[in-house]
From TrEMBL:
Residues 185-501 form the PLL-like beta propeller domain. InterPro entries: Cell_wall_metabolism_enzyme, Dup_hybrid_motif, M23ase_b-sheet_dom, PLL-like_beta-prop, TAT_signal. Keywords: Signal. It holds the Pfam family Peptidase_M23. This is Peptidase M23. It comes from the Bacteria. Residues 1-33 form the signal peptide. GO terms for molecular function: metalloendopeptidase activity. It comes from Streptomyces nanshensis.
């Protein structure tokens, strides 16, 4: 893959959102990073009441209605950057800048309790509900911005749900519902965030596994570190219930794993996890237990933690599944894991019949192909993409266990696939074969997709992850090494670059 610059513009985005800058070269101290992460991870219910208007194309926020004088609370830790009166429609309003760069905005209040420069904590009262400005009745108008320069907010209900707050909510109530932990993409290169917000990256080469990590959340990258482990392995990564990441590496002859010894901390050595196979995927049950699937010539087997961040079961057969298949996991809106397995002849899936529960039999999901990726829409519905000799197709949930038919999307033939969600909740899909890299994105939340656009030249593997501030970062591999490319705004991207000016591992 040769470095190549690519950018696109979405017609509904009115500004390029260029304030999201490329990673800085100034690392935070461990204490500062830890404090920032704690603040970013904290969330709270903004106000009691009912949702009188949701986020949509004509409404840039969510309205929570209640009587005049109802307390309003900060949805997260941060600094008050605006507290005043707006005569264009808001009346009294407040803005809070959060540690991850996002901004919460509150309008139509009858009273403000904080001033510019104040530091507020999640759940701290900042105002009282009113009906000032352009308002038909007392309510809180809540907006969430991904950064300072965008002209279109992101869905506040999605933002809050990802942090464990589901509207309508009761301020101060608990315990808060735990957000779904969606499985990370598996493959020869994988990435996931540590609890402190830093991305960790692993790439499998002919000499074993290599590791690089962000030195601060949203920041620059370390040097590559050689870890040994299985050669030319397929990788999967998942978080334990206590936040420690765990890495799984499968080759044709061996299966090993290693894990962080503390959240965001160092890593253990390699330990045996089973025999060899073709591919693996890992996901997290609704109760926090990791579950691992692996394919081989006899179909698929699985193994799972007996308790959150605890010991493991033995390997169990799954009753079949496609032999020597590519495997990916998804998580349904109600927390049930779903597994998809694809080889050259058939695509099948099976799913938990209840959260943390038993599994359905394998059922047909489509014809065979080259690779697949699974993601979730902003409303939680799963979406599956599969590549083959005539391009990329997709299929999406229409109900709890019902699916659409397969729909052609175009795109490169026999491509490696990955997907991730943009800061405003739209799914974006990346496809790479030996000659080209392309991407396609939802034109609105839960909406149809754009035409495929060039994203770079060809390579061997691709994966995507989300930075702590919501920006997607894409990692591509080739026989020359490992590259990355990241969002600089809603619709703009950096060039393809080496990590830390080093080629890193070659992935064949």
């Amino acid at each position: 893959m040769l470095p190549r610059f690519s950018r696109r513009a979405l017609t509904w985005v009115l500004a390029a959102a260029t304030a999201l800058l490329a990673p800085t070269l100034t690392p935070l101290s461990p204490a500062t990073a830890a404090a920032s992460t704690t603040a970013a991870a904290t969330a709270a219910c903004p106000a009691a009441g009912f949702v009188s208007q949701h986020f949509h194309s004509g409404h840039n926020g969510v309205d929570i209605a209640n009587k005049v004088g109802t307390p309003i609370y900060a949805v997260g830790d941060g600094e008050v950057t605006i507290s005043g009166y707006d005569n264009t429609g808001y009346g009294q309003w407040i803005r809070v800048l959060h540690p991850d760069g996002r901004i919460s905005e509150y309008g139509h209040m009858s009273r403000r309790d904080v001033s510019v420069g104040d530091r507020v904590a999640a759940g701290q009262q900042i105002a009282l509900m009113g009906s000032e400005g352009q308002s038909t009745g007392p309510h809180l108008h809540l907006r969430i911005w991904s950064d300072r320069s965008t002209s279109r907010g992101i869905d506040p209900e999605v933002h809050l749900a990802e942090r464990g707050i589901v509207l309508p909510c009761t301020p101060g109530s608990g315990p808060r519902p735990k957000p779904l932990v969606y499985p990370a993409e598996s493959g020869r290169v994988v990435s996931a965030r540590s609890t402190d917000g830093r991305l960790e990256l692993f790439a499998a080469g002919a000499d074993g596994i290599h590791h690089a990590w962000q030195r601060r959340a949203n920041g620059d990258w370390s040097e590559w570190e050689a870890l040994g482990g299985p050669r030319n392995a397929e990788l999967a990564i998942a978080p334990n219930a206590d936040g420690r990441l765990e890495l799984f590496a499968l080759s044709g002859t061996t299966f090993e794993h290693r894990w962080q010894v503390s959240p965001s901390g160092g890593w253990s050595g390699w330990q045996n996890f089973g025999g060899g196979g073709r591919d693996t995927a890992a996901g997290v049950n609704a109760d926090g237990r990791i579950e691992v699937y692996a394919s081989g010539p006899a179909g698929l087997f699985h193994r799972y933690q007996l308790a959150p961040h605890g010991g493991w079961s033995g390997w169990e057969p799954t009753g079949g599944g496609p032999a020597d298949s590519r495997v990916e996991m998804g998580k349904a809106p109600d927390g049930r894991l779903e597994v998809f397995a694809l080889n050259g002849q058939v695509l099948q899936h099976r799913y938990q019949t209840a959260p943390n529960g038993g599994w359905s039999p394998w059922t047909g999901f489509g014809e065979g192909g080259h690779d697949l990726t699974v993601d979730h829409n902003a409303d939680g519905r799963l979406e599956v993409f599969a590549s083959g000799p005539v391009g990329v197709f997709h299929k999406y949930q229409t109900g709890r266990t019902s699916w659409s038919g397969w729909e052609a999307t175009g795109g490169p033939a026999d491509a490696q696939l990955t997907s991730e969600r943009t800061p405003d909740g739209r799914v974006e899909v990346f496809a790479m074969n030996g000659t080209t890299a392309m991407h396609s994105w939802q034109t609105a939340v839960n909406a149809p997709y754009s035409a495929w656009a060039t994203f770079g030249t060809g390579g061997t593997e691709v994966t995507a992850a989300t930075n702590a501030d919501g920006r997607i970062e894409v990692f591509g591999t080739s026989h020359a090494g490992t590259y990355h490319k990241w969002q600089t705004g809603f619709a703009t991207w950096s060039e393809w670059l080496w990590l830390n000016n080093s080629s890193g591992p070659a992935v064949g």
